[in-house]
């Protein structure tokens, strides 16, 4: 199986590469439109700032390339946020694959620290991306922005300050706010499921 | 609900884990990668690898070990010890570390925090603070606890947050290695006044100490070394105990 990872200016992709290697896959890290289009699976991970990442994607014409992908695609963290319509981070127009808005966490109590950093549980799991994953299983998060729950596209919810979308799906596009590559055996199962979609 | 984190810390010297009592008398305790993997499989929420000799001997942390950890372990880990400049951070993150812990270098050159935050984001910066409750209050110490600074713990923690640190790892030198519990009062003062997560370090001896770090110290995470390395506390038992005590924990 050919697995490609979108190469752009938002690290950390090393942990995704390592996680795939543990599953016996050696991914190709590329920003080449042709290589991305012909891969069996494409991952769009990253950590970073939305407006800078989006500007890079546009400069390298990767915005159109990503939107036109037909195979299963998995966005992770900032990848998920960039696949939405708009992000409050840097007031950025994003790829628009999911017609959703990305919002900033606003603390309601002192104990609500932003970013959310650490393990939280996921619920209301839908689609084969979560095969063999249990309601309430824990996944690892590091983020200050989130996608509100949406009845059409949300395939997993998480609660931090308010319920939000831990994962999204539309056609061949999947995305997680959390980091499956850092979420222990649960994350490994989710990545395995993605490869088997 | 966000879970409180349990973080075994592996102090590394010459590629082996060690743990001292009050920062001296080091005892050897095993291979860091194997140990890290075992902890991860046992339910550790995160790992921390500190090259404890680096900051005063000027050695760089072992990048190869970081790469091995990143290849074999599927939970987040922090690497620290001897980070002096942005290039050290870049090297360690490129090797696969999720976060870097900076200690002395940040006190000597506070703008290092701003610089790392700008290049890699706040989420990669753990500002480690070694402090002691001296007669004139809590003071920061550098060079592995050897050199007292006039800088106060609370002022420095606040400044580190303002400059862009993502977390504070507070080690009480008075409590470290003594196994009588964490510095819960100082921890609570940090946790209640800062908006970034606080990791409690120094003093774990019993399972109740972890509970107190969360309930009294309001810590977001608790870090320990020897109680885990020498098998005095098992992570699965600890996490079950904390869960039974109604603390939000990942089992």
Give a verbal description of the structure:
The complex is a heterodimer of chains A (197) and B (251). Chain A is of the alpha/beta class and 197 residues long. Chain A has 6 helices and 13 strands. In chain A, the strands form 3 sheets. Chain A has a 7-stranded mixed beta sheet. In chain A, strands 6-5-7-10 form a 4-stranded mixed beta sheet. A two-stranded antiparallel sheet of chain A has the order 8-9. The mean pLDDT of chain A is 95. By secondary structure, chain B is an alpha/beta fold. Chain B has one domain: TIM Barrel (Alpha-Beta Barrel), CATH 3.20.20.70. In chain B, 37% of the residues lie in helices and 27% in strands. In chain B, strand 8 and strand 9 form a beta hairpin. In chain B, helix 1 packs parallel to helix 3. Chain B starts with a strand and ends in a 7-residue tail after the last helix. About 2% of the residues of chain B have low confidence.
List the helices and strands and how they pair.
The complex is a heterodimer of chains A (197) and B (251).
Chain A: E1 3-6, H1 14-22, E2 28-30, H2 33-38, E3 41-44, H3 50-59, H4 62-67, E4 73-76, H5 78-82, E5 84-87, E6 92-93, E7 98-104, E8 116-121, E9 138-143, E10 145-146, E11 154-160, E12 162-170, E13 173-176, H6 184-195
Parallel strand pairs in A: 1-2, 1-3, 3-4, 4-13, 5-7
Antiparallel strand pairs in A: 5-6, 7-10, 8-9, 11-12, 12-13
Chain B: E1 5-13, E2 16-21, E3 24-28, H1 32-41, E4 47-51, H2 54-57, H3 63-72, E5 77-80, H4 86-94, E6 99-102, H5 104-108, H6 111-120, E7 125-134, E8 137-142, E9 147-152, H7 153-163, E10 167-172, H8 184-193, E11 198-201, H9 207-215, E12 221-224, H10 226-229, H11 235-244
Helix pairs in contact in B: 1-3
